[in-house]
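ARCHIVE CARD
Drawer: 12
Card no.: 0347
Subject: one protein chain, sequence and derived structure
Cross-reference: see card 0346
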Amino acid sequence: MPMLDVHIPDGALRPEAEAALLDRITEILIRHEGFDPADPVTRSASWLFLHRPAAVYVGGRIADAPHYKVVPSVPEGQLDAAKRAGVIAEVTEAVLDAEDGAWPRDPGRVWVFPTEIPEGHWGGFGEIRPLATILARLTGDDHDRARTLAAERITASRAERSSTPGTTARP
């Protein structure tokens, strides 16, 4: 159930390549969250907002090739360190593949910032949506399984952060 903000400069990609890229990025995120990208319920909970900057500046000057920014936001507990690394690598490759050789293949032009939204801060339907509520929808309304899975994922996420220098666990 990712929310994606994808920044693609105007005219950087052919329209059909861009459409395929946005679908591929959505699938990458769904898969890394541990769900089936072909499932229509999961896809309906995965939104992508396309941002179209007129220009991107690097070092105060207009860039000589397109630069991209992808910000996948997921509820806390959905992406551990390995999954974040996988998302970053796969999204970067997907963007460069979408260019289809129109620009030098330079991963330095693609920035990906996977962001976990702390438990209790994901809002939808006019209210806070805990991870267990979200997972229940994606697990066929199996609320017991969803609560267990949410607790496991959040606990693991907080343990990972508390063991990583320079980070702190959320309450």
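Annotation on reverse: The mean pLDDT is 93. Helices lie at 15-32, 40-44, 81-99, 131-138, 143-163.
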